[in-house]
Amino acid sequence: MAINLSNVYFSYPEQSKVPIINITAWSITTGEHVFIYGPSGGGKSTLLGLLSGILSANKGEVNIHGQRLDKMTNRQRDKFRAQHIGYVFQQFNLIPYLDAIDNIQLAQHFAQSTSKASLNKEIKALLTRLNLSEKDWYKPIRTLSIGQQQRIAIARALINKPTLLIADEPTSSLDHNNRDNFMTLLISIVKDNGITLLFVSHDMSLSHYFNRVESFNNINEIVCSNVN
Amino acid sequence: MLIKLALKSIRDRQGSIVLSIMAMTVSILVLLGVEHIRHQTKASFSNTVSGVDLIVGARTGSLNLLLYSVFKIGKPTNNISWSSFEKITANEKVKWAVPFSLGDSHKGFRVLGTTQGYFKHFKYGHKHSLNFKEGVMFNNIFEVVLGAQVAKKLGYQLGDSLVLAHGIAKTSFSLHENNPFTVVGILAPTGTPVDHSLHVSLQGIEAIHFNWQGANSLSTESPVAMLAENLQPKSITGLMLGLKSKMTTFRLQREINNDKTEPLLAILPGVALAELWQMMSILENTLFLISALVFIAACLGVNAMLLSSIRERIQEIQLLRMIGASPLFLFLLIEIDALFITMMSIILGSSLLALSLLFAQDYLVSYLGLQISANIFASQPIFLLSAVLSTSFIITAIPSIIGYTQLQRKC
Hints:
heterodimer; A: alpha/beta; Rossmann fold; 5-stranded parallel beta sheet; 9 strands; B: 16% strand
């Protein structure tokens, strides 16, 4: 199993009596590409926070690739996240004042998995595969287009060869063309590398890229709004 | 990677960082300035007189003797006889003795009647001798050597003539008009009360008081002026002593204080100066309080800046957390900001202070009588700056923790 949740309950400390997540049982098998849709404010980002180990469940088991996140210390979860989980956000995926190479190196720094020489080769190979021309590699991120930034974000998310890639509405700020290019590239890369993909969006037109589509309301037993 | 990221982040926010550095630089400048002046004033005060082992005067309080003999403040309670001076000078423990007479003035500046030995033995600061900016020491009865401030404020030059007044009031109607003195020397600034004094020979003091307000006042042309027996002092205000061995200081002090023939008081200038500074501890504490308040204000300023910068950078911090940055990494990232600002401010503040003092040194000595060294590292600033740096490091933990808590809520 790539993800296995059992009796997971979560509420924010300042509103401890207002539950945000209550999932009795939910799982994803390794290599699956799962699309989760649901309205904004439903707790999708909170679920992703629990799966990536940024947040810690109040109760229940959070199992990622056989590792119990709920049993780990904060330090262990940070390390696990850096080494095994790639993350692509809707926006602000990259540090704006660093260039593409530095942004990707930063992600590798936290995972501490590859030597610097082989890392540079891998970064350049990834960026080439993601169709980012060499002249843009050393430009500050803020000078690049949103489409280019999202492609670098994929490279950043994949550099540590994660087993799980979490994408939180990564196409919402892209136009139609860029969105399709992005999705085609993303799916082809995760397929080639055997990565489990968990993709969250409210844009149902993207669902055809995935082999499993689920409504968030069917996963989470709590219906709430504006939790963020 | 941490340092690289921190420095690139700082460069990216250079506008707000420069403003923070400017604000912090001013605070550090004031903090260091006040502390340096406090230390230097204390040192300058303690260094008003050095190389003098004992000061002897008529029996009074030790502070009173110190005030009138060294600082030329207040009045002596009584004179001491010339025979006592001779008796003390004859003591085998005494290496040198310099008598002095007070009681006259010139336009508010005190006149010190003394011997040529004064210019040789009197020291200030770290045993600095008195130096002549112009001219030489007095050789004749009606010659005067001016302190630097007297010459500067009254505009006297070598060869000028001046008249002394009886008493120490700024405006005096009892002038020794018949016996004018000629300026033969002007001393270099010392930052001590010497700058505000006029120095004449003891014979000069005797001469202007010889048959004063009587029919025969002494004239420079009169052969009588040359008659040493008429100008031999009968009494003096006090004397400064240098001893052959420091070990004998307390013994001689006790001997003088227990003298049965005349009630005398001998004091150790260093001890009396320390006692006097102790009385001025309110001033010192006030300066210290000002320094502390400036320092707290500076720390709060950096804190406010960091807190607002964390709010600006919350997405960046959130992203770093997501890609695996530990709370410690983020904490250090924010701390480096604070340390960079503090370090830059320390460098700029110290340099500005040193430069300002370098350029204002002459002005401070001339107009305020403050001998302030431009070497700001002479007054324990390393300790102070380390305290600034560590406090800044500790206080910055507050915005770091607040930032981290905000981040946890946003996830």
